[in-house]
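Title: Comparing notes on inverse folding

I've been comparing how different people in this forum approach sequence design from structure. To keep things fair, I'm posting one structure and asking everyone to reply with a full sequence. Here's the target:
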């Protein structure tokens, strides 16, 4: 055992002599004894303390390997350095910053004060920048540096901040400490850039930099992507500053605003319904519908328009339709009906829009019964030329599609009442609907109507299907083609029914035979 230990000892001694392993008893690093090293302030900077070393040394000394470094360590470091591809654009940006930096001006401070702090910023990839800056500036501008440099007055310091996310931003933050007008310096910068400066300023406790960045963010416009970054950054920094609250005012609503949401939405919807410019009305309908759908998809930030508001608007549209149709039926044939018929189409279109919102909001069940009960409106509808009234039948088609796609669940009596009141009108207007409106999907209407009919009791299906059969033979493509529903009804009524009767006639007799 002793022989083995002796052999191992000789091997280790040989490796130390060859430079592969360092002898800790001989290790000495003068550069480290003179260097005050910090991690990036983003990683709890106040947890590190600084000593007061002798006067600074050159950047070359900062990167020179120590005398006790082994050959293996030197080879590894060399390989590590060679494997890194320098970011030339970053180097150029930092170079431009340093070229115009006030502390590089020999006349700064009247030329009487030279830099007494060698500040080195090191990126995570090893890229490092050294600056000869002034302790008086750092200490007066940054509470972080004031705390770390408060001792050993009159002594030069070497400070290294390592593991920085963005060296350029750190360098610019130091440059900002020398600027008299930070607001002018930040003009024209990108929001992301200022957010980076804000983060570093907060880490260095650079209060003037924080205030200037917040002032910029409050005044500058943001894109939607930048908005999310601003909210996230301010949330992470926990600045607890009134200026920070001012920045977020554009994206945070007061409780009174949220409480009046339904009132605001009611005003917007009413404004669209009463709009005088048709193009603007169509654009705003599309916009509001899209925004309401997006809001509905986000359960964490739900902004519901109340059911009462929507049904109030529906009743207004219904009243207008009844009034317009009553006037139209009482007009002389020689009178110009154009304006009145345009108003009918407009009110019907408004109704379709409100119904679409109600279906999306899952509030449309009561409207199906309301529409089914419009007997007077259906009678007036039959007395007006098809070219003017077909927009009204699109409401019926809309409800059938919603029922057929399971977005409306209503009792069978209500479903049958809907078809009893409006199905004949839909048959009559279908040809005009299909030809006059590009928004009507013929197949979708036919499928919705088919599914709605097939949800009814079989005897009601029969009455509707026989009526449709006669109409389709006479009108062809001007009548909805619901042949598939007809086939389903046929099989339900005859094929399956006969099969069930046959099954009832089958009898099984069990007999016991004597053994």
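Reply #1:
Here's my take.
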């Amino acid at each position: 055992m002793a022989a083995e230990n002796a052999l191992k000892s000789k091997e280790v001694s040989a490796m130390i002599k060859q430079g592969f392993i360092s002898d800790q008893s001989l290790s000495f690093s003068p550069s480290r004894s003179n260097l005050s090293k910090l991690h990036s302030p983003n990683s709890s900077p106040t947890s590190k303390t600084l000593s007061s070393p002798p006067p600074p040394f050159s950047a070359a000394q900062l990167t020179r390997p120590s005398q006790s470094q082994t050959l293996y360590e030197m080879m590894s470091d060399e390989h590590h350095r060679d494997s890194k591809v320098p970011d030339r654009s970053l180097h150029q940006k930092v170079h431009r910053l340093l070229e115009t930096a006030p502390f590089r001006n020999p006349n700064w401070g009247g030329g009487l004060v030279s830099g007494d702090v060698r500040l080195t910023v090191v990126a995570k990839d090893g890229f490092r920048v050294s600056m000869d800056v002034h302790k008086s500036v750092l200490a007066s501008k940054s509470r972080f540096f004031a705390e770390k440099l408060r001792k050993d007055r009159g002594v030069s310091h070497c400070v290294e901040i390592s593991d920085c996310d963005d060296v350029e931003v750190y360098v610019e933050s130091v440059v900002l400490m020398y600027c008299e007008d930070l607001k002018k310096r930040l003009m024209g910068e990108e929001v992301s850039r200022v957010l980076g400066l804000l983060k570093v300023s907060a880490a260095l406790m650079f209060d003037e930099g924080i205030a200037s960045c917040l002032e910029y963010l409050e005044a500058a416009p943001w894109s939607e992507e930048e908005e999310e970054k601003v909210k996230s950054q301010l949330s992470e920094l926990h600045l607890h500053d009134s200026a920070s609250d001012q920045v977020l005012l554009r994206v945070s609503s007061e409780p009174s605003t949220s409480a009046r949401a339904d009132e605001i939405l009611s005003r917007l919807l009413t404004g669209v319904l009463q709009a005088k410019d048709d193009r603007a009305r169509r654009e705003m309908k599309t916009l509001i519908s899209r925004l309401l759908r997006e809001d509905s998809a986000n359960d964490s930030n739900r902004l519901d328009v109340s059911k009462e508001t929507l049904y109030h608007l529906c009743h207004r549209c219904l009243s207008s339709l009844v009034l317009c149709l009553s006037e139209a039926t009482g007009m002389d044939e020689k009178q110009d009906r154009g304006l009145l018929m345009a108003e009918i189409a407009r009110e019907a279109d408004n109704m379709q829009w409100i119904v679409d919102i109600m279906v999306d909001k899952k509030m449309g069940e009561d409207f199906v019964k309301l529409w089914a009960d419009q007997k007077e409106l259906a009678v007036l509808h039959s007395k007006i030329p098809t070219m003017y009234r077909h927009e009204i039948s699109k409401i019926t088609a809309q409800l059938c599609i919603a029922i057929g796609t399971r977005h409306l669940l209503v009792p069978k009596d209500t479903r049958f009442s809907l078809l009893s009141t409006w199905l004949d009108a839909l048959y009559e207007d279908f040809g005009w609907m299909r030809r006059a409106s590009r928004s009507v999907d013929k197949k979708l209407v036919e499928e919705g109507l088919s599914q709605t009919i097939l949800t009814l009791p079989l005897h009601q299906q029969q009455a509707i299907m026989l009526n449709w059969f006669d109409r389709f033979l006479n009108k062809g493509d001007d009548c909805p083609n619901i042949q598939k529903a007809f086939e389903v009804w046929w099989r339900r009524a005859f094929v399956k029914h006969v099969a069930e009767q046959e099954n009832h006639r089958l009898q099984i007799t069990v007999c016991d035979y004597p053994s």
